[in-house]
Fold:
Amino acid sequence: MKRLVVVAGMALGLLAAPAGAVDGVHWSSSDLATLDRWVDAAPLDALPRPSTDALQAARDGTDRAMVDEAADALALRLARMQLLGAASAAQRSGWNIDDSDEALPLEVVLAAALATDTLDRFFAQLRPTHPDYAALRAAYGTETGAARRRTIGRNMERWRWMPRELGQDYVLVNAARFEAYLWRQGSLDSTWRVIVGRQRTPTPVFQAQIEGVVLNPWWEVPASIVRESVGALVRNSPAAARARGYVVENGRYRQRPGPNNALGQMKLVMPNPYSVYMHDTPNRNLFDEEVRSFSHGCIRTGDAIGFATTLLEGVASREEVDAILASGQTRTLAVAHPMPVYITYFTAVSDGAGGVAVLDDIYGRDGRIAVATEDTGRTFMQALATAPQDDAELAQAIEC
Structure:
């Protein structure tokens, strides 16, 4: 038990309980008061306030074991909402990013928090750690427009579907903002414009691992695009198809590397079940458009060679990359350190200046997410007045 508490405590940055301190831990009156504050504060995170009826009934009785059981159940219900979200499976439909937080043994961490009098820290640590969430939460608390507030709340919920720890180095694509972000050592390093899928061929939400870069790639034409256009071109205008680099072998449609190649000069090696990749494009003028939803689902990347060269640091210089491109030969270069890439969809984001920008819901996905914008029986300001201590104080305590 002690080892589980230590591991779980480390997972959330909490202090581990001393040996033998978990078994038989009870809820004190101070612990219950802390739980009451966090339950009442749930609306500040766009979460529904969980019912306290079972705990209140237990408190009205004389059986301490029933109080402990009801308090455990309420605390864990709230903790799971904070960590994993409150949405149903139907509302999460299409969000294909694995949330590793589901494996955290919350029961063990809660017991450790009770044993070490760190219940405030336990709840505070469950919120998403990404700075965008903090920006959304701050805006949610002051937003007066109902529609805008709902959008902010829905995107706070989406952040709870993400792993709390995305990695020190990773790429995050926000299809709704038509941008990709490279994070290094936990800080935003660079931003690239991207083109994403049309409304009828939307870019899916998923995660993958960036393993390498293909320079001068061949394009394996998807069956849907063969049916839509390429197949007819090959049948009806074979000379034009050859001029554009299309090759058909045993029913397999491919396009040679070259100036007409749909993937442009590079494609990331990022295996995934959707056959969706980040790549270059010969139609670079489209990056000047404000709304950049033109693809069949893949993610066309602006300054793709600069992007690839950045990912290949320590492997190949820009001069070496340019030489490979000039050769016309297809080369695959492994990145020095594989990193995750998250293809996401957030319609409310930090504006980089302390506020929040609300974006167009280009794929119509917002409406499926219910959000608790009002707290039954309590006003938002009442929740704010009784909220636990300031986040900055908690963060400072956690870092010690």
Observations:
- The chain has 14 helices and 15 strands.
- Residues 219-256 form one domain.
- The chain has three domains: 2-127+374-399, 129-218+260-369, 219-256.
